């Protein structure tokens, strides 16, 4: 179908000279508008000489449900400043095979939908959509201001099945995800400090984390002046696994001749691990009866509450008194798993008392990790970790 050189605003500088529909697609031929200035893509100056012309086929937004292909006549100009360069086309990036508005459309929907769904919506191939999204994500991250963190939060999340993890580092003040890397070892975390650089490492004052020795050692090597702050949630969770759960199993085994009581103890796992404030009212009586009937379980349950109080101390001396009392009670309890846990916890006392001066925790990252899991489920997983990590950093750019 021939047209009388129709100019449209979304193809600025070009005229539609031909339109035809074949094989379920719309093909439009675009030629340069002789009234539009010829601009060098290198220096944006007007040019007057054309070196050569050629054709490029690009995709544009679908029209009435059909894909749209553009045959565009492009020119190379002779610029007095840059030499031979391609002309500047406002709606088409250099070497691009899709228009800017289609790329923006894909980038917008990739923030809300999985790549496979965006492919169906735009009619583009999976690799093309992912390449566009990767470019957009990199541009978003590059546009962010330089990070100048003074307090950090570190945590991990499951990347794949089979105990494969990734580490996330958050700026505690701006809530910006600064870095994501595969693994949770010292070697996995080291690239973050190399990216941060010696000057910014010296500005770090405190780092909140769980009781991960690898994190601890790497922070001390690169930021020796920083205070390590151990998170209450992870310490109490570790206490639940290594003390309460162990004692519950041992007590159930000891009660093998008292089957009714053994059954009660075996089924009380979540009742013992949950905070008392979160236990339904109808279950509290069962908990109190269990603790009254079993002295050992009662001891470790009370010691858990006392352990949590260490994070509520208002001053260093109050904390020191509470800490020494807890250690003495643990050592005198006669409960072997509790005594073993106290011995393991003792070398970490500096990271616990640091909470008095630096009231930090990894709760900020726990919420972010939950959103990361949602992102992973929506996409049915990601084919490469680097792309996934770009999405995470772009999704959490921090507060302005």
TrEMBL record:
<dbReference type="InterPro" id="IPR032877">
    <property type="entry name" value="Transposase_HTH"/>
</dbReference>
<dbReference type="Pfam" id="PF01610">
    <property type="entry name" value="DDE_Tnp_ISL3"/>
</dbReference>
<dbReference type="InterPro" id="IPR047951">
    <property type="entry name" value="Transpos_ISL3"/>
</dbReference>
<feature type="domain" description="Transposase IS204/IS1001/IS1096/IS1165 DDE">
    <location>
        <begin position="152"/>
        <end position="392"/>
    </location>
</feature>
<dbReference type="InterPro" id="IPR029261">
    <property type="entry name" value="Transposase_Znf"/>
</dbReference>
<dbReference type="InterPro" id="IPR002560">
    <property type="entry name" value="Transposase_DDE"/>
</dbReference>
<dbReference type="Pfam" id="PF13542">
    <property type="entry name" value="HTH_Tnp_ISL3"/>
</dbReference>
<feature type="domain" description="Transposase IS204/IS1001/IS1096/IS1165 helix-turn-helix">
    <location>
        <begin position="87"/>
        <end position="132"/>
    </location>
</feature>
<protein>
    <submittedName>
        <fullName>ISL3 family transposase</fullName>
    </submittedName>
</protein>
<dbReference type="Pfam" id="PF14690">
    <property type="entry name" value="Zn_ribbon_ISL3"/>
</dbReference>
<feature type="domain" description="Transposase IS204/IS1001/IS1096/IS1165 zinc-finger">
    <location>
        <begin position="39"/>
        <end position="82"/>
    </location>
</feature>
